[in-house]
Design a protein that fits this description.
Radius of gyration: 24 Å
CATH architecture of the largest domain: 3-Layer(aba) Sandwich
Structural class: alpha/beta
Domain ABC transporter: 2-231
CATH topology of the largest domain: Rossmann fold
Protein name: ABC transporter ATP-binding protein
Number of domains: 2
GO molecular function, one term: ATP hydrolysis activity
Bound molecules: adenosine-5'-triphosphate
Family: Belongs to the ABC transporter superfamily.
Strand content: 25-35%
CATH superfamily of the largest domain: P-loop containing nucleotide triphosphate hydrolases
Number of strands: 14
Order of helices and strands: EEEHEEHEHHHEHEHEEHEHEEHEH
Shape: elongated
Keywords: ATP-binding, Nucleotide-binding, Transport
CATH class of the largest domain: Alpha Beta
Strand order of the largest sheet: 6-7-8-3-9-10
Length: 309
């Protein structure tokens, strides 16, 4: 769906996005992460055709942006960071207007507006003036205009902004539903959001792509947690002799070990060998499970040690 090659954008002397390349296929949710000023919004503005790259190439839905992006713009939905809404307009009128701007035909418009309002749970406010809406409600109107006409590509710049916990849950469920038939690229500062909805993340750091990986790969760690009824020194020594294990760490004040596997060891084979050793040592096995890396740590590593945004 998206092919970005050496995408670069400068604002005068500032290089906001620096030779960023990535490919995104059809469907699924890709999270764009990074500290404030990392270049996320600039990437999204270029993808939506709102900003031209200074250098590099961009193909969306098979079309090269160098030959114009009007056609693609009609088939994508974009929620910018600060969507300008017309405060004096009613929600339904605004969405009808947005549908017109998107080129949705008169006969399709009412249905498209109704579907978008229902999906974002804003139908109850359809006759309210936008000026009277709360921040979260306005955010939902913003998402509603982005999904008008069921676009195949959705670019959502911080869609969770200003939502209460209940609405956050609805928004995440909506994004997952939309991702069954569209590619969703969203930026966020919230790690739980990434965890809850994303299949893959792109981490930007100072305008460069610092990491591009699936959540599954990111979470994978080569460590296992072992809990036994009673820890002992002989058990620890026996574990150290298991060929698949690189190191054994006994956690203080509990009967638990953190076992780091050697590179490329199969965790299932290693687990079977560990369970055998525990039994041979006469210890009782309470728990043996793979440890997952937390996303905060992954983010810190990718951005050179600074904490999650
Ligand atoms: N119109 C502009 N003119 C000049 N510099 C800009 C402009 N827009 C963005 N920048 C600069 O480009 C860099 C990237 O900004 P961008 O808004 O893309 O970052 P971001 O990752 O979206 O940040 P945030 O998380 O704060 O929204 C920053 O250094 C910013 O100051």
């Amino acid at each position: 769906m998206i092919e970005a090659q050496s995408l670069t954008r400068r604002y005068g002397p500032v290089t906001a996005v620096n030779r960023v390349s990535f490919h995104i296929g059809n469907n699924g949710v890709v999270g764009l992460l990074g500290h404030n000023g990392a270049g996320k919004s600039t990437v999204m503005k270029m993808l939506s055709g709102y900003l031209e790259p200074t250098a590099g190439s961009l193909r969306v839905a098979g079309r090269d942006y160098a030959h114009g992006c009007r056609e693609v713009q009609r088939s994508l939905g974009y929620l910018p960071e600060n969507l300008p809404l017309y405060p004096e307009m009613m929600v339904a009128d605004y969405l009808d207007y947005a549908a017109t701007c998107k080129g949705i035909g008169r006969d399709q418009r009412a249905l498209a507006v109704r579907e978008a309002m229902q999906a974002t749970d804003i139908a109850g406010h359809m006759l309210a003036k936008i000026a009277t809406l709360s921040r979260g409600q306005r955010q939902r109107v913003g998402v509603a205009q982005a999904i008008l006409g069921n676009p195949r590509l959705l670019i959502l710049d911080e869609p969770g902004n200003g939502l209460d916990p209940e609405q956050t849950g609805h928004m995440r469920a909506l994004i997952k539903r939309l991702a069954r038939r569209a590619t969703v690229l969203l930026s966020t500062h919230i790690m739980q959001e990434v965890d809850a909805v994303c299949d893959r993340v792109l981490i930007l750091h100072q305008g460069r792509l610092a990491l591009d990986a699936t959540l599954e790969a990111l979470r994978h760690s080569e460590a296992l947690s072992l809990r036994v009824k009673t820890a002992s020194e002989p058990l620890r020594h026996a574990l150290e002799l298991v060929p698949a294990i690189a190191s054994v760490e006994a956690l203080p004040n509990c009967d638990e070990y953190r076992l780091l596997l050697r590179r490329d060891e199969d965790p299932d084979d290693a687990s079977a060998a560990i369970a055998r050793v525990v039994i041979e040592q006469g210890a009782e096995l309470c728990q043996l499970l793979p440890l997952q890396r937390d996303l905060e740590t992954v983010f810190r590593e990718a951005t050179g040690g600074s904490a999650a945004p």
